[in-house]
Amino acid sequence: MSLETASQKEYKDPETVIIQDATENVYRPDVDTSSVDGRKLMRRIDWHVVPWLAVLYLLNFLDRGNIGNAKLYHMTDDLHITDKQYLVALTVFFFPYSLFEPPSNLALKKLRPSLWLSFIMLVWGIAMTLHGVVTNYAGLVGLRVLLGLAEAGLYPGIVFYLSCWYRRNELGSRVGVFFSSATIAGAFSGLLAAAIHNMDGVAGKPGWAWIFILEGLVTVICAIASFFILSDFPDTAKFLNETERVWVIRRLQADMKFSAGGEKFKMKYVWQSLADVKTWLAMGIYMGFDGPLFAFSLFTPTIINQLGFQATAANLLSVPVYAWACIMTVVIGFLGDRVKTRAWVNLGLFGSGLVGYIILLCSTNPSLSYFAVYLAASSIYPTIPNSVAWVSSNVEGSYKRSAVLGMAIGWGNLNGAVTSNVYRAVDKPWYRLGHGIVLAYIAIGWICSLALYFHLKRENAARERGERDEIIDGVDNKHAREENGRFESIEAARSEKGDKWSGFRYSL
User: Fold this and answer.
1) How far apart (Å, rounded) are the C-alpha atoms in residues 166 and 174?
2) Alpha helices by DSSP H, 197-241
3) CA distances to 91, 339, 385 from 170, in Å
4) In terms of pTM, does the model score above 0.85?
5) Contact 379/353 with Cβ under 8 angstroms?
6) What is the radius of gyration, based on Cα positions, of the chain?
7) What DSSP character marks residue 469?
8) Which residues contact 386 (CB under 8 A, 6 or more apart)?
């Protein structure tokens, strides 16, 4: 059988799992998994993996953005800092937050998720608590740097971790469910801030300080609990027995995640991710939604406040905006898994975001602007799980995937350093400059999504024509080329080349 024939027989549909009959390529062929109830086991995995991750990300997003709520309760006045200094304090968070994401993902793979994620969460919980006792600008800046360093590893770590558990056509819905906690955090932060502010004067501290202290202490408690609650990777997960672990790994490998059974770190995986055009297009996509995300989450209460509503009313009016974003995030997560064409979902979502920010840019009507905020929220938040699932499903090799996700998410988050400065006090109440910059970011995301779609489609077509076929010892294949590599077996080609293997098909 030629390599071309073998590839087409085993992987005709890029998101259809086919269990191979040949035991030579089956993980742990000595283990009989016929007794496993797959549907029941996947439900159990969902309950063990997803809910607690959603709680962790809720706390992550809550702790990152609550400074916007605290500002409405005179934090800047009490610390005697100017509007420019406040923007600097927001900005310095993003440099360690972005730069530490790629190495953090590699550390997560080398260590246990339960150990690494719990540790960084403990550090940021302590940093958040200390925000409540800071007395000057220098202390605030230092704590924002520490917070960015510690929070950096959670989001890319969770995304990579989920990609190690689920098939490509299952990932979007799980990411959507866990990421919906970010929208809940956005809504909850307004309610929580309004409630905690009633502690103003307790123990001689202002209400904004108690926002940081109480939310930070909750994070510290959850960090300690995470060490015992979080499961590790499928091949070592304690809540699965040996047969179930084998079944999960075989299932992932049949979905072209050949590294699911384990992979040793090699520096070449990092270089491969840097040389892959998909990485750079993914960075453009992440830039397109992460820049707007940080601007939206940090300044939504301020924008609503400047439309004529007081601080508490502005915080409360942000609640239904985030509730709507939560609904849309979950719906799009499941829709993306069903339609299996994530590119068009991305283009539609980015397109609606363009409409929302054009309205915000042009409007002088508070009611119309408030409507546009809903449109922006229903674009920015749902785009994230769809893009995360799309990018991670098209990168094979666990270390390469962790590096690509780390770089893409890191670059996207680095743009938060820009967008956290675009809503200046001098531009109120309509913030034309800020809305214009966010609009440009969304346009970049739309263009990069379209470019990635055409790149993947062209590459799949080339592989169907046999232009990427490798020379396999003992296999007669008229399409095989020396430039594509020479390997002793198809399995060796899979392991060595990952998603560059001629039999791998990209999901569009």
Assistant:
1) 9
2) 207-229
3) 35, 11, 11
4) no
5) yes
6) 24
7) P
8) 172, 176, 332, 333, 336, 342, 345, 346, 349
Sign of the CA dihedral running 334, 335, 339, 341:
negative
Which residue's structure tokens are 């006792």? Answer: 133
Each residue's pLDDT, cut to its tens digit, for the chain (508 residues) gives: 333 333 333 334 444 333 333 344 567 778 788 888 888 999 999 999 999 999 998 898 888 878 888 888 889 999 999 888 988 888 888 888 888 888 888 888 788 899 999 999 999 999 999 999 999 999 999 999 999 999 988 988 888 888 888 888 888 888 888 888 877 776 777 778 888 888 988 888 898 999 999 999 999 999 999 999 998 888 888 888 889 988 988 888 777 655 555 556 677 777 888 888 999 999 999 999 988 988 887 677 666 766 666 666 766 777 788 888 889 988 998 888 888 789 999 999 999 999 999 998 998 887 888 888 899 988 998 998 899 889 988 988 777 888 888 889 889 888 877 887 788 778 877 888 989 999 999 999 999 999 999 999 999 999 998 888 888 888 888 888 888 888 888 878 877 787 888 888 898 8
Residue 471 belongs to what H/E stretch?
Answer: strand 471-472
Measured distance CA(484)–CA(497) in Å, rounded? 10
